Recover the amino acids of this structure.
């Protein structure tokens, strides 16, 4: 039984560890109850290197330089896809990604109990 327990623990550690500088999406919730609008909330887990913090790059969770988040210069982390333009929201609470066809994705950042949350 000790060998079995050791194998289970080993498997758990391998599954729960992320490579340094990487992120994974843990939860994704979409609400499409409003016409022409989808609200998406996602939670990501990141193993960032020193000087980095969880952020968004090309519409995916990523480790970014911490100064970007502290200064709220969101577009510096390149959160939009390659064909989209990035604009800061007026109060710097998030950013907008504008697609060539006119569709706009707005992302706001909120903090609670030491965690940050992204809502698109």
């Amino acid at each position: 039984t000790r060998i079995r327990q050791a194998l289970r623990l080993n498997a758990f550690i391998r599954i729960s560890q992320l490579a340094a500088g990487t992120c994974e999406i843990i939860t994704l919730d979409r609400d499409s109850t409003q016409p022409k609008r989808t609200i998406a909330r996602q939670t990501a887990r990141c193993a960032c290197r020193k000087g980095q913090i969880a952020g968004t790059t090309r519409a995916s969770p990523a480790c970014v330089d911490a100064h970007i988040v502290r200064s709220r210069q969101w577009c510096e982390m390149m959160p939009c896809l390659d064909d989209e333009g990035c604009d800061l929201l007026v109060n710097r609470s998030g950013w907008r990604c504008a697609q060539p066809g006119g569709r706009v994705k707005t992302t706001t950042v909120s903090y609670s109990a030491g965690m940050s949350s992204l809502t698109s």
Observations:
- The two ends are 48 Å apart (CA to CA).
